[in-house]
Amino acid sequence: MKKLSRDERFILSGEFYIFFLLGVYTLMVGALVPFIREEYGINYELSGYLVSANSIGMIAMSLIASYTAILFGLKRAYMLQHSFVIVGLVVLTVSGNPVLLLLGMAFIGLARGSTANYSNQIVNDISKSDSRVMNVVGVFFAFGACVTPFIVILFSGIAGNWKYANYGVSFAAAVGILLTLRMKIDREGIKTSGVKRGGLSFFRQKKYLVSLMALFCYSGMEISIIGWIVTYFMETQDTTTQFASLMATVLWGAMLAGRIVCSVIANRMTTAKLIFYLSIGVAVFMAIFVSNLSLTLLIIATVGLGLCMSGTYSTILANTGHIFSEYKLAFGYFFMLGGMGPVILPSVIGIISERYGIRIGIRVIAVTAVIFLVISIMNLRLDMKANAE
After folding, report:
1. Is 191 helix (H, G, I), strand (E, B) or coil?
2. Of 88, 272, 307, 317, which cross-links 108 as Cys (Cβ 3.0–4.6 Å)?
């Protein structure tokens, strides 16, 4: 931070807050669905569509955001699309119409996709692809994700209505928009001269493709573990719902702690080495997780997975940061194509679990962890080859 100008420090501090909000938006969807189902009397099928609408909105905006930033300017596009979360939360609050509920969730997804795209671009540009800084913003994201269930429970308990949580988060989002208004970004701050705005030639770069495969596998594993961990504990270990939910909290707590550790050690090794070491940990603990040897080992594996998964996402972004700085469209395609992992993998697990049981279905994640390890080795070899040349 000392090496940055005053304006850059303000931007980075504001992005820490916005990444906290991004964590809130991400977990808000799952936290709100039970209340929406009870309030409006919707069925489980529509509940599933709501989650899908949110994911579709996020993936769509991950690509669109790059083009809108070029057409309208980064700051204007950033502020407008961040405001979509307020629109989405208000729609969910005022109407139980299925079409409007789907639109509301889609708008929250649009805000998530654009915020993740722009915020990561800004932090990457200011930090010059510093993996330590990228992991620090990941800490704020994880903290936001950790506190979101408590925010919803607190508002619904004290105020007596879950809708007040929507109002509270909408106000927090408005503060984020005002912070963005004061940031000297786009033409006022972050330089765009010399950037290759058009073209898709970044797809010819091996580093980009390997990082894209890594993001696809990792993000698919993360969402699958988060989505299935409660069911897995309940059905394989016969635990209570409360205990299984506690394990989901333990997973996020470990991820938060791990991101703090990764932010400290990130500058002591290359991003390729850090991804490699983390991928080994993910593969080992995932093997223990699916082994079902004992409840104790399963808890240890949950903590280990959280620690090893923690800094992977941010480090993958830092690993590709120089390409993002050169080709602005690279960011949008990276998020869109990498974001297909969380769409495809959970569905595959669900299909297999329906036929053969959750014990078999969850092993899809273990296979993906092995593939991720292979990809991290490829990435490491690319770095070694580049250094040798």
Report:
1. coil
2. 88
Whether residue 150 is found in the same domain as residue 16? yes
Tokens standing for residue 75 = 């700051």
Angle between helices 44-72 and 98-127 (to 10 degrees): 40
Range of the domain at 340: 202-388
pTM summary value: 0.70
Q: Are residues 351 and 253 located together in one domain of the fold?
A: yes
Residues contacting 117, CB < 8 A, separation 6+ = 61, 62, 65, 66, 331, 332, 335
State how many domains the chain has.
2
Tokens of 381: 């070899």
Q: Are 101 and 40 contacting, i.e. CB atoms less than 8 angstroms apart? A: yes
> pLDDT (tens digit, 9 = 90+) per residue, 301-335?
999 999 999 888 888 988 887 787 777 778 778 87
Assess contact for 275 and 215: CB atoms under 8 A.
no
57 and 180, same domain (yes or no):
yes
pLDDT tens sequence across 144-198: 877 777 777 777 766 567 788 888 899 999 999 998 888 887 543 344 444 455 5
